[in-house]
Amino acid sequence: xxxxxxxxxxxxxxxxxxxxxxxxxxxxxxxxxxxxxxxxxxxxxxxxxxxxxxxxxxxxxxxxxxxxxxxxxxxxxxxxxxxxxxxxxxxxxxxxxxx
Length: 99
Description:
It comes from Fervidobacterium islandicum. By secondary structure, the protein is mainly alpha-helical. It has helices spanning 2-21, 25-38, 44-98. The protein contains three helices and no strands.
């Protein structure tokens, strides 16, 4: 039975890493909930290993969040530039029509 639990937790741990890599945060949340149910059955050393892996995962997630924020900022800047261009073009067409 213990080997079955260990294999299950290892599978879940692998899938957690894959979900982070693939930025599938919905699946990540499901896996974390699933893993939580198994934690009470693990040894102290297994829990320490999971904690250490989670610390590394947090670093990866923080980096992804930083990249996401940068992308969002660039997108917002691009959007403003396009809106400005559209407004300028639109004013030019009004002048041409009145012209």
